[in-house]
Amino acid sequence: MSKLLGKWKFESSEGWDEYMKTLDVNFALRKIGGMVKPQEEIRNEADFWYLDIYSTFKNIHLKFKLGEEFDETTADGRGVKVGRLSVDNTKTVHKNMFILG
User: Fold this and answer.
1) 14: which strand partners?
2) How many whole angstroms from its chain centre is CA 47?
């Protein structure tokens, strides 16, 4: 899991628009999001993990324990219950359960 720690640069947005359509993200936000090249930082302190996403559009900061539910606010302002965020070798698996509210 230590391979995931550190700073990461954006690499590709292949399939971005189609993915965002399935989440009902509006046209303008899909186009803006497709142009953003975010950078991420992943940290671990004791039982908590931190995922900080920095972009020119919006910064997002998540604090969570692996395998436990938590609430997240998406970049377009929707509340989402995250069923779990886990680490599988060299990737994170992020499962959103439902939109809150």
Assistant:
1) none
2) 19
Query: Collapsing DSSP states into helix, strand and coil, what is residue 25?
Result: coil
If phi > 0 it is left, if psi is from -120 to 50 it is alpha, else beta; for residue 9 that is beta
**Burial (Cβ within 10 Å: 0-12, 13-18, ≥19) of residue 6:** exposed
Residue 11 gets the label, from left (phi > 0), alpha (psi -120 to 50) or beta, of alpha
pLDDT score of 1 more than 80? no
pLDDT digits (tens, 9 = 90+) for 24-41: 888 998 888 888 899 999
Residues 6+ apart with CB under 8 A from 57: 32, 33, 36, 75
Distance of CA 17 to the CA centre of its chain: 16
